[in-house]
Amino acid sequence: MTTDSTSTRGRTGTGRGGVRSRTGETLTRRTSTGSTVLATGLDAGRRALAGVRLAARNAARGLAHTVTPAGWFLVVVLLVGLAAGWAFGLVEGWVAAVVAGALLLLSAPFLLSGARFDIRLELDRERVVVGTDLGATLRVTNRGQRLALPSIVDVPVGDGLVETAVPLLAPGAEHVERLAIGAHRRGVVTVGPMKVSRGDPVGILRHEVSWPQVQTIHVHPVTTPIPSTSAGFVKDLEGMPSSDIVDSDLAFHAIREYMPGDSRRHVHWKSTAKTGRLMVRQYEETRRARIAVLLDLLEDEYSSDDAFELAVSCAASLAVQGVRDGREVLFATSGERRPSGGRSGAIRTLPTVDPKTLLDATCSIEKGAHADRLEDLTTLTAQSFPELSIACIVTGSGVPVERLRRAVFAFPTTVRSLVIRVEPGAEPLVRSTRDGTILDVGVLGDLKHLMARGAVA
Predict the structure, then answer these.
(1) How far apart are CA 439 and CA 446, in angstroms?
(2) Is the distance from CB of 318 to CB of 310 less than 8 angstroms?
(3) What is the mean pLDDT of the chain?
(4) Among 301, 293, 323, which residue's Cα sits nearest to residue 392?
(5) Are residues 280 and 298 in the same domain?
(6) DSSP state, residue 301
(7) pTM score of the predicted model
(8) Same domain (yes/no): 128, 100
(9) Listed residues 61, 96, 111: the one ending a domain
(10) Is residue 173 part of a domain?
(11) 158 plus 206 within the same structural domain
(12) Are residues 255 and 195 in the same domain?
C-alpha cells in the first residue's frame, strides 16, 4: 500500500508535547493555572472593596441625614468617656459613656416604624392679595400595616417653613390639619416639597422623607377700583375724530376719485352717476383710547421698598381698570441697562389679555439698580408703539419735575400724558402742566380721587 507523504505532512496533529502546525512545526502550548487563579482573586477583591466603599459611603450619607447635632454630641461624649475610663480609670468617664450610649440606644427604636404616609396639601385658591392669609388643608394618611409613631410635617412656603405635628396614626387612619399661609409680600411663592420627619422626643436621631409635590401661589399687589367716570380724560378721548384721513371709519370727511386698491364697499354711487367716474368716500380716523401704563423700575428713584410697592399697586390699578373697560392696554416696565452704561434698547411688556393674567405678571416685577432711566423707557415706548393716545407714567419721588417733563416730551403732542409720583405718607397733589398732569400719591386710596381732579384740571 502506498502512502501520500505530502498530504500527511499537511495535516495538523496534536500530542502531549504541543500542537503540530500545517508546516510540520510543533508549537508548545503552556497554560499557567496559578496566574489565572491569582487574577480572578484580584478581580473579586477589587469588586468586594468597591462594594464595601459604596456601602460605607451610603452608610455615612445615611448617618449624616439621620444623626442630629445633639446625636453627634452624644457620640463624642461616648468615645471620650470610654477613652477616659479605660486610660485613666475615671469613674466619671464610664458614667458619661454609659449615659450617652443609653440615650443613643433608646432613641433608635423611634426610627424603626414601618409606616407609609400619603400626604396631600390642598390650597383654597392659587391667587391671593398681599397682606391676606391663604387657607390650606393638609391630609396625612397612614397607608402602612403598622402603627405610625408621631411625626412632624414640614411645609416650605417660600423662604419660610410651616411645621405641623402628626399624632399617632393607626393603619389606614387619616389626620387632617388646617393651615394658614400668610402672604406678606408680593411675588410668586412656591409651596413644597413637603418633608415628614420622624425621630425621638429628645431630638437625637431624625429620619426624613420628602414628597415632590410643589405648588405655586401668586401674591397679587393691592389694587383700587377706578370708576370709568372718574377717568374723564379717557372718556373724552374715546370716539373723537382726529385729523388723520383713512379709508374706513365712522366720521365722514369727503369724496374723492377711485384709486386702484380701494374697496368697492365705499363707492359713492350718486357721485359716480353724476360725474361718470367711480367716486369713493373718505373718513377721519376716530381716536381710540390706547392706554400705555409705564412703570419705572430704577431703584434710585424710590425712597423705600414700600414706595416701590405703592408704585406697582398704582400701575396695576390703572392697567386692570383699562382692561376691564375693554380698552387696548400696554403695560411696560424698564429694561436692564447694558454693562457699558448705555440703555438696553428694549422694554418688557406684560400680558394684558385679562385682569387675572395681568396681575399674575405683576407678581414677578422687581426693581433694580441697573434698570433703564425713565426717559429711556418713554422714548422706547413712543418709538415702538406710535398709536398711543394716553400714557400713564408711574415713578418714585426721586425724579425731579424737569426729568418728568423730558420723559413726557418723548411722546407726540397727540398723546395725553399722566405722571404719577409715589411717596408713602405724602400729601396728595395735582399739578397741570403744558405737557400733561402730575399726580403726587401718598396712599393708594387717593389715586381715584386724584384721577378725577386731574381730569377736571
Answers:
(1) 10
(2) no
(3) 80
(4) 293
(5) no
(6) G
(7) 0.69
(8) no
(9) 111
(10) yes
(11) yes
(12) no
DSSP string, 370-400: TBPPHHHHHHHHHHH-TT-SEEEEEEETTS-
% of the chain with per-residue pLDDT over 90: 34
Look at residue 232 in the predicted model and tell me its pLDDT.
40
* pLDDT band at 235; cut points 50, 70, 90: very low
Mean pLDDT of 90-103: 89
3-state SS string for 77-97: HHHHHHHHHHHHCCHHHHHHH
Residue 432 pLDDT level (bands cut at 50, 70, 90): confident
Q: How far apart are CA 199 and CA 108, in angstroms?
A: 8
Q: In what order do the strands lie in the sheet with 133-142?
A: 117-123, 133-142, 174-182
* Residues 6+ away with beta carbon under 8 Å from 436: 391, 408, 416, 417, 418, 419
pLDDT tens, position by position, 12-23: 444 444 444 444
CA angle 427, 432, 437 (to 5 degrees): 80
**Look-up of cell digits 414700600:** 306
How many domains is the chain built from?
4
CA end-to-end span of the chain, whole Å? Answer: 138
Maximum CA pair distance of the chain? 138
Residues 302 and 447 in one domain: yes
pLDDT band with cut points at 50, 70 and 90 for residue 377: very high
Helix (H, G, I), strand (E, B) or coil at 65: helix
State which of 164, 190, 220 marks the end of a domain: 220
Query: What is the domain range of residue 256?
Result: 242-286
